[in-house]
Design brief:
The chain is of the alpha+beta class. The chain is built from four helices and six strands. It has a six-stranded antiparallel sheet with strand order 5-1-2-3-4-6. The radius of gyration is 20 Å and the shape is globular.
C-alpha cells in the first residue's frame, strides 16, 4: 500500500496514529521504521481489541515498519509540543530510543502510555495531550452533571416546601 505523507517524517518526529476512539503514538526512526511502546493488544488490525490496552500493565518497546503499524488507520507527524518544549538533539533521541528496544516497561494509560513514551524520548519530558484532554472532558462532564443534579435537587426542595 502506498502512503502519501502530508509531512514527510524525519528521524525523531512524533507520529500520531488515529485508531478511532484513541490515538497511538510512535517515534520515527528513519527508513520507514518507528519505535513505540506496544501493549500486547496494540496492532494495526486489532480493532476493538486494541481498546483493551487500558487494562494492560506492561508493554514492550518495539521497532516496526510505519506502514505495518498504521495499517488502514490515518496518521500524521505531530510535533505540536515543540512550541512548549525544546526537542532534544536527534542523535540523542535515536540513541536513547535504540537503547530501549526490546525492553518490557510498565504501562499505565494515565501515567505511562505510548504518548508519554515518545514525548519522553523527544523532549526529555513525558506528557500526554490526549490524557490531559480526556481528564478535562471527564471533569467538565462531571461538573455539568453535578450542576444538573444540584439544580434538580433544588427544584425538588422548592416543590416540597411549597406543598
Amino acid at each position: 500500500m502506498y502512503y502519501a505523507y502530508l509531512t514527510e517524517p524525519e528521524p525523531g518526529d512524533l507520529i500520531e496514529i488515529f485508531r478511532g476512539t484513541y490515538q497511538h503514538w510512535a517515534l520515527y526512526l528513519g527508513e520507514g521504521d518507528i519505535i513505540h511502546l506496544c501493549p500486547p493488544t496494540e496492532a494495526a488490525d486489532a480493532g476493538l481489541r486494541s481498546l483493551m490496552s487500558v487494562l494492560c500493565d506492561r508493554a514492550v518497546v518495539t521497532r516496526e515498519g510505519l506502514v505495518e503499524v498504521v495499517g488502514q488507520s490515518r496518521f500524521h507527524v505531530n510535533n505540536q509540543l515543540d512550541s512548549k518544549h525544546k526537542p532534544r538533539k536527534v542523535c540523542a533521541i535515536l540513541r536513547d530510543a535504540h537503547s530501549l528496544l526490546g525492553l518490557e516497561m510498565p504501562y499505565c494509560i494515565l501515567r505511562g502510555n505510548c504518548e508519554h513514551f515518545v514525548t519522553q524520548l523527544r523532549y526529555g519530558q513525558a506528557e500526554s495531550q490526549q490524557i490531559h484532554y480526556a481528564v478535562g472532558v471527564g471533569v467538565g462532564t462531571v461538573a455539568v452533571g453535578m450542576k444538573a443534579l444540584t439544580a434538580a435537587s433544588n427544584l425538588s426542595c422548592i416543590r416540597t416546601i411549597e406543598q
